[in-house]
Fold this sequence. Notes:
By secondary structure, this protein is α/β, with parallel strands linked by helices. It is 44% helix and 19% strand. The chain has 13 helices and ten strands. The chain has helices at residues 17-24, 44-54, 68-79, 96-110, 171-176, 189-192, 224-229, 231-244, 253-277, 280-296, 298-305, 308-313, 318-335; strands at residues 2-10, 31-38, 59-64, 82-87, 93-94, 118-127, 134-136, 147-148, 167-170, 203-215. Strands 1, 2, 3, 4, 5, 6, 7, 8, 9 and 10 form a ten-stranded mixed β-sheet that branches. The longest helix is centred in the last third of the chain and has 25 residues, at 253-277.
Amino acid sequence: MKLLTITVPCYNSQDYMRHCVDTLLPGGDDVEILIVDDGSSDDTASIADELAAAHPGIVRAIHQENRGHGGAVMTGIREAAGMYFKVVDSDDWVDKDAYTSVLNTLRQFSSEEEPVDMLVSNYVYEKQGAVHKKVVSYHHSLPAGRVLTWDKTRHFPRGHYLLMHALIYRTGLLRESGLNLPWHTFYVDNLYAYVPLQRVRRFYYLDVDFYRYFIGRSDQSVNEKVMISRIDQQIRVNLQMMRDVDVKDIENHKLRSYLVNYFEIITAVSSILLFCAGTAEALDKKDMLWKEIAEGDPWLYRKIRYRIMGWSLTKRNIINTKANIGVYRIAQKVFGFN
């Protein structure tokens, strides 16, 4: 068995996928790199085959009809031979020194009778044009360098959660978690960082800046204009988070609170993007989103609706709209997204 499977979802990635894979190759025989060509129409498929031929036993090319990012990740989970599993998008990369630390840590746990379910590390916003790169670390929330349970975690500040870039899961846990990422849907990384957590019991925080998250292309899914144009997909993910995890039944109160807060912030993003769209149709969609949450999970609805954020986001007037958009703009500058 390999120590780590890294899945690289690729769709028309010819311009940057080589760099991504090159940063993953130093893992050597401990690592399996699955390049999932998701129905690309450029040279992605031939580059994937070339890399697989050049690195047999390490790189494997998988070709499939287009299913979207979620479909490519699910293919990777199904095909993975590694004990642990990581997603690295084709326009991103990893830090070499941190990679070595990650593999050494995973190797240590792989020989234990009860290996950890999840490894958390930091990621860096490689924002195009930015002089100072924002590092997202978790040292304020997670004690570093020891095995943790949820009871050992500290408070996660609002808007500062465990995203896909920070996570390495035990492959068996992913397969048992009920994770089912929808095809042809963006923003499924929120499901990936949310649904499996209900199964995570023991985990470890390695305080290294491992993942390098490139942001700045105009066609990226996290570009605000692109997100507004794909708001129906954001809403779909938002509601699937509610349906796939029954948060009220989570026994550990810290994990339960974390999941409520995470769901709240995703619902806030959906709502504010609809405010930003500024049309009557968009505001109707916002009202429908909250209505579906209220009907689908009344317990969760009450948890998020009667907080300050929920109160503000469910109102529908010009002053409230401007205030919500203003807060969102400040958060963009502080956290460096979009």
